[in-house]
Structure prediction request, 351 residues.
Amino acid sequence: MDISVLINIFPLAVFNTGHFEALLDTTLISKGARAVRDRAVTIMTERVAIVTGSNKGIGFSIVKGLCQRFKGVVYLTARDVKRGEQAVSELNKLNLHPLFHQLDVADRDSVLRFSEYLRKKHGGVDILINNAAVANSRDLYNSYEENKYIVDVNYKSILTIQELIFPLVRNNGRIINISSDCGHISNVKNEFWLKKLSKKDLTLKEINEFVDWFLDSCKNNTFRKDDFADNGTVVAYRVAKVALSALTMLQQKELDERNISVNSMHPGLVRTDMTLGVGFYNADEAAETPLYLALEAPQSLKGAYVWYDRKVLDWYDHKADYYFKTSTLDRNVSNTQQPNTPIVFINKTIS
Prediction:
């Protein structure tokens, strides 16, 4: 009998409730079966962390931090196998040893393969950081096809992960959705959608309707710049991240009974490829708040929208000045805080 057979015999819920070892004690009694049991218990109780889109940028730095601080298996994932393996090799040089698995979050079959692998190999997941993202940083306005791709990767992929990987998250686990200042509701100026998205009983159907309304407006040439902040610049990224932040609160409601925490956070304007090297701090510094949420934050912090300095903001405050401004992409503006200026966090300062 191997591990995959055990997983097929016992429902996944058994592994997620912490009763797996006790159940095997009473079920598998032969010497050979007990050896399999011991191996199964080791695997099923081994803690597992996953970071999507982690071959570079913030994701890479989060994996690095998890390898240094997390007692368990850490998965670096990437769409491109060669780039993912190169990233692992870079970490190996630092005596850090994440595992690699190919994952294209926009490809359902890829997510399904990873989900099945995790189920058979580990039986569950403890930390899931949804970091994979794309943005067209060169152009402030994009075509319908470009907008659809940005929405598919940054928002709709999370729905696939929610369907296929969330069931693997163990009780008391943690999920972090990497959002953006583009993900605060203040990015939306359309009165109808402000009212709809501000509902405390908001549904997934309504979030999807918001996303589809935007895409339809792009397709039908009815898009209005004044429906969004900053004259509707980088609007697909705003829509996708607003939808993700709203979805986070729904996910929290669904997983609360298993004491799983789900939070979204804005990592700040970081010097990465996606920002064309513009930003006020580097990827390692940007990784500190996601790592805090994954490893140190109280489990009671749930369904929150967290700023890069660890402050919890009121996501529903649509009059706030939290929305993304393209002026911050001006190097003269973004670098007013020099790279060596210490970034102060709650209870921690990093330089």
Notes: Residues 181 and 324 are 5 Å apart (CA to CA).
